[in-house]
Structure formats: structure tokens, C-alpha cells
Design goal:
By secondary structure, the chain is mostly helical. It has one domain (8-162). It is built from six helices and no strands. The protein has helices at 10-37, 43-50, 52-69, 75-102, 110-133, 138-179. The chain is elongated. The protein starts with 9 loop residues before the first helix and ends with a helix.
């Protein structure tokens, strides 16, 4: 049996997958702390548009890492799983864009559209293309898939940080207004 080109990527996906899993847990802690310390003006619509996608991106990275770390006998099943993950991600990016447009608790700026809609859509789209090309050109496809995993991880980190800083600054300015 021919060795698959996934073996050299094992430590990469252990690191990336572990990071995604840890950051997912941290996002849950942040959301729990936020709900305890302040009321939210936008309700669940704002959370669905801006916080939930962060967890979804982290989980997508974890799924990609697990898929490419599994002991496959051929690349075909891994390509299918990754292709379906990418397709689901493209659909989810469209849903997130609609949610961001409909919610009223926060007015998104260009950076929000970039990190919550445009980059995730591009990343998941690239995952679909790379998964489709995986059997023909595994080397380039695996580099593209690794890039998508890092992109989604960095998007999640950016969005989590953005959420925390927004909440910290708005709750501080709100407390200052109430104290005045």
C-alpha cells in the first residue's frame, strides 16, 4: 500500500486542532462571563451574527484537523469530508451575512464584513476547491487546506478579540454614563 501524503502534516494538524479546541472552550467562557456581567441590547440576533460564527470556525478547524489526522486508506474519503465541510461553510457564511444585516444591536463596519462574511466565505470556498483537487494534486491541495485552517483560526481569534474588546469598552462607557 502506498503511503498517503498526510503523514508529514500530522504535527501541524495536532497543533492547529488543539488550538481550535482550546479557543472554542475559551469562547464559551467569555460568552458565559458576558451574560453574567451585562445585559445585551441586541439579544440572540447579535450573538448569532457575531459570536456563534467564531465557535463554528474553530469547530471547522478542529474537524479539518481531525479529518486529516485520521488513518485513511485513501485520500478520497478525506476529500469528501473536507469538500462537504467547505460547502457547509460557504452556506453558513451566507447565513451569517444575512444575520449580520438583520440584527439591530450593532452596526457592522467594513472590518466586521471582512472578518465575518468575506474572509470566511473565501476560506470555505477555497476548501471546496482544494478538496475537489485533492486526488489530482494532493501536495498543493494540502497546502491550500492548511492555509484555510490557519485563516479560519485567525478569523476566529480576531473575532473573539473584537467581541471581547467591544464588550469591555461598551460596558465601561455604559457604566460611566450610568455613574455620571
Amino acid at each position: 500500500m502506498q503511503e498517503l501524503p498526510l503523514s508529514p502534516w500530522e504535527s501541524f494538524y495536532v497543533i492547529v486542532g488543539s488550538s481550535a479546541a482550546a479557543l472554542t472552550g475559551l469562547q464559551f467562557v467569555v460568552i458565559a462571563l458576558v451574560t453574567e456581567t451585562q445585559r445585551t441590547d441586541g439579544g440572540t440576533e447579535t450573538i448569532d451574527a457575531f459570536a456563534t460564527p467564531t465557535v463554528v470556525h474553530f469547530c471547522a478547524v478542529l474537524l479539518m484537523s481531525a479529518t486529516l489526522s485520521a488513518p485513511w486508506h485513501s485520500l478520497k474519503p478525506a476529500a469528501w469530508v473536507l469538500g462537504l465541510t467547505g460547502l457547509a461553510g460557504v452556506c453558513y457564511a451566507a447565513v451569517v451575512t444575512l444575520r449580520a444585516r438583520r440584527q439591530v444591536g450593532y452596526k457592522p463596519v467594513m472590518e466586521d464584513w471582512l472578518f465575518h462574511s468575506i474572509l470566511p466565505f473565501a476560506g470555505y470556498g477555497a476548501l471546496v476547491v482544494a478538496a475537489g483537487a485533492m486526488l489530482r494534486d494532493p501536495t498543493d491541495s494540502l497546502f491550500c487546506i492548511a492555509s484555510v485552517a490557519l485563516l479560519l483560526l485567525f478569523i476566529g481569534i480576531h473575532n473573539a478579540w473584537d467581541t471581547v474588546t467591544y464588550i469591555a469598552t461598551t460596558s465601561r462607557t455604559g457604566a460611566q454614563r450610568e455613574g455620571a
